[in-house]
Design brief:
- The chain is α+β, with helices and mostly antiparallel strands.
- It folds into three domains: 9-207, 2-Layer Sandwich (Heat Shock Protein 90), CATH 3.30.565; 227-364, Ribosomal Protein S5, domain 2 (2-Layer Sandwich); 427-657, formyl-coa transferase, domain 3 (2-Layer Sandwich), CATH 3.30.1540.
- The chain is built from 21 helices and 25 strands.
- Strands 1, 2, 3, 4, 5, 6, 7, 8 and 9 form a nine-stranded mixed beta sheet that branches.
- A hairpin with a 5-residue loop joins strand 1 (42-48) and strand 2 (54-59).
- The termini are far apart.
- Residues 243-248, 366-457 and 586-590 have low confidence and may be disordered.
Amino acid sequence: MGRIAVLPPEVAEKIAAGEVIERPASVVKELVENALDAGARRVEVWLENGGLSLIRVRDNGCGMSADDLPVALRRHATSKIREAGDLWRLTTLGFRGEALPSIAAVSRLRICSRPAPAAGAGDGTAAAPAEATGHVIDAEGGVAGPVQPFGCAPGTEVWVRDLFYNVPARRKFLRSAQAEAGRCDEVLADLALSRPDVAFEFWRDGRLVWTTSGNGDPRAVFGAVRDPVLALEMRGPFPPAGPGVEPGVETLASPAALLALDTPRCQLYLAPASHSRPSRRWQSVLLNGRPVDSPMASKAVERAFGRRLMSRQYPVFLLYLWVPPGSVDVNVHPSKRQVRFQQEDSLFRLIYHTAEAGLYRMEAGGPWAAADGRDGRGRVPVYPSEEEPGTQPVAGSPPLQGNGATHGPESAGGSWSAAAVSWPGRLEEEAAATAYGAAAVSAAAGQSAAAPAAGRGPGVDVCLAGQSWRYVGQVWNTYLLWQSPQALLVVDQHAAHERVMYELFRRREAGPSAVQELLMPETLTLTAEEFQLWAQERELLERLGFFADPFGERTLLLRTVPMAGGRSMQPHVLRNLLAELAEARGTRWEQRDREEVLIRAACKQAAVKAGDPLAPQEAVALMEALAKTEHPDQCPHGRPTWRRFSASDLAGWFERH
């Protein structure tokens, strides 16, 4: 007998199903895509036990006839394509003909459907003749039963029970019901954003999580599925809708409109840079009505933001992109999240210039802009341009501020601006006394705001790395300069403060930290995954000082925040911590790993930032506290806190031999 044998059909079907159906979220995605392709204007989704017990999807689309139901459960059966060439003219979300048979192979499936009168499917095919009653078909483990009459409304309703009941190995590696429900929430939210003209309802364990109206406004959908407060801050669409400009989302939602496209088009909705997030999870790219992952599109928008963003912060946006169906390949992966473009460079330029123009309108034409074009902080906005390479932001470069300067510390007249090298502000004496250690108490006591403490500003010696350094000043509100007779020391204030805060949090790890009770509790809207992470790490977060209570399905009521170095953290720090944890998490974590990630993220948020002005006594106190840490030469993330340049290095640069 030969070594090679053909697999039994039931084994082959389970293997094939595993390529399409990975978890409950995969089922939700496939069923909702089928509903949208069927021309549905309303889609309702119910979950029980995170989708492991039940996933139920109902739509008011064109429906299926009694003859179509058994065919729909056969592999490679589809109404979306007829020949190979159709793969390059796709205007539908699903087309492989594998979703329903794959789901049926690993669950107990029921489909009830009734053709809608005089309605056509979204794929351009004619609807089945209207029927007075619907029909139902049941399938278990891939084996379908007979079609029977069944009373139901026009449209289709699908029940998926006991997912992976016959594949225990796959079910064993699923996460908790709450985590799987969160994944389903994210998938459905992306689909709702892709079709703002369709009304969605999402129910979980008998409770309504969110709903959209289907009025065609993407910002209203964003508010329903993501963050209602942030939705009010979003601006768009860019380019503005109007006669002779870009058509709206609803006019390009139909396949006929997509097939008529001859050039790429886009619409962009932007949140201000002040509402950036520490991950790209709040960015949505919707290609021809399909949610996709596009690093190219994200980089184009981020490049337009340039220096407006802090390091490792990402803009929040909705990008609706329409391209001729023949110029994009959506058949790269079974999940259809990865796509390939024929002319990626031209699309990058289109998105970049759209974002650049949108930011210009927001900053120069918004109600908060001054008449001379300066923003609320008195600066003239910097707009990157391909024609002017000198205006491009340098990766990781700090923002340069002071007296309206945009490219350096020089003012418009060409001389050094006093505002760029002065000390424009300082902390209160009490905060300065505790910000970086007890050594600052005597320095800050009794000093006025107009003058630095005697002996604690420039000219004070601090010992670091076995050498005495004298404070010189702050450059670009980012770097602290120190000198000795033989060298120059440049300290990154953010990295240095991160190291100080890290060791402070580590000392508090064994017990609760000092907290500040908020006068009015703060509401924080999270993503489904962030909310699940908060529930999982609630005990550790409370030890750090974040005490919060659930306030709805994805909202927290934050009551206290930690005190770090004499300052209380801002409430949004908790949301940033959870976002960073979501980015860093793996499939299996040790308790120590989770604590380390949270503490490192907390100290990053607590530390002073690049661009924050420090009074001389604060800079000295920071240096003294850094010298007392165990590892003063690097921050908790591995970046250097300081660089040393010897006198001979400087002499060599200027050819002083």
